[in-house]
Amino acid sequence: MRGLSQVQSTKFSVRTVVLVVVVIFLMSGLHLSRRGRKGAWNWKSIFRKAAPKVFSWEPIKVTEVDCSKVFSGDKMELRKAVQHEKDKSHGDVGMNDSEVLRLARTCDKLKRERTFITSSLSEEESNFPLAYSIIVYKEANQVLNLLSAIYRPQNVYCVHVDKKAQKSFRFAMEAIADCFPNVFLASRSVDVQWGTFSVLETELVCMQDLWNYTHWKYFINLTGQEFPLKTNYELVKILTAYNGANDVIVSRRWW
Ligand SMILES: *[C@@H]1O[C@H](CO)[C@@H](O)[C@H](O)[C@H]1NC(C)=O
Ligand SMILES: *[C@@H]1O[C@H](CO)[C@@H](O)[C@H](O)[C@H]1NC(C)=O
Ligand SMILES: *[C@@H]1O[C@H](CO)[C@@H](O)[C@H](O)[C@H]1NC(C)=O
């Protein structure tokens, strides 16, 4: 009997040690620091240090524009926002393809500077991954804007680069894809002619490539010149309501 209780107490202390080690590990993982005055937790620094797991960037506060008015479609505020953006950029349209390529060679910098969200943010979104095809042929900077807006780690993205796209553009796209395990270039590049079957062909190539990833629930086709009006969360809500139904536009040419 005595032997048994000794074994149990040893087990207990081993468990306690494991628990303590786990707690210490978690604390160091979060970079908890007691640098704040009077030994209080320095929450601001804790948050900033833990933040890279979700947002690898600092939010930018735009005080000149009322964002909630912009989102509700207030025409005056929209005009103000456009003007603000123009004034701020001094007519600069953004990085050229070689500059994007240079940025994408440092993935951490790319994710931080172009505000990529690297968490699925909610359980609901995490359980409802989406597959995208994005047909692109120019302006890596604009494609990057689109990708950073729709990117979530649970989704998967097939980027189709036009066969006749410039080399610098293709290299930039390859470098961007190399930064993310769930972004890839289509296995075959089609010479896209608008208004012909080749447009659908690119999407078929992507759809086939996307079969390599089995977990997604819905497929969304985009081009590099688009920008989302809904967040990933809103899309998940909408597509959940679809309950397996599809939203497909069918057109027919009469010639
Ligand atoms: C891209 O921008 C860089 C620096 O701003 C410049 O040196 C380079 O010539 C530009 N490349 C092209 C292809 O315009
Ligand atoms: C997907 O798998 C097929 C073979 O099953 C392969 O030919 C293709 O390159 C793969 N695509 C990607 C993007 O990995
Ligand atoms: C997505 O595919 C549908 C059906 O083929 C097509 O009507 C639509 O134009 C495509 N969207 C884009 C952005 O290419």
Layout of secondary structure:
Elements: H1 2-29, H2 43-50, H3 67-71, H4 75-89, H5 97-104, H6 107-113, H7 123-126, E1 130-136, H8 140-150, E2 156-161, H9 167-178, E3 183-185, H10 197-210, E4 218-223, H11 232-242
Parallel strand pairs: 1-2, 1-4, 2-3
Residues 200, 221-223, 226, 248-249 line the site of one 2-acetamido-2-deoxy-beta-D-glucopyranose.
* Count of individual beta strands: 4
Which structural class fits the helix and strand makeup? alpha/beta
**Anisotropy-based shape:** globular
- Tell me what portion of residues adopts beta-strand conformation: 5-15%
Pathway: Protein modification; protein glycosylation
Protein name: Beta-1,3-galactosyl-O-glycosyl-glycoprotein beta-1,6-N-acetylglucosaminyltransferase
GO molecular function: glycosyltransferase activity
Subcellular location: Membrane
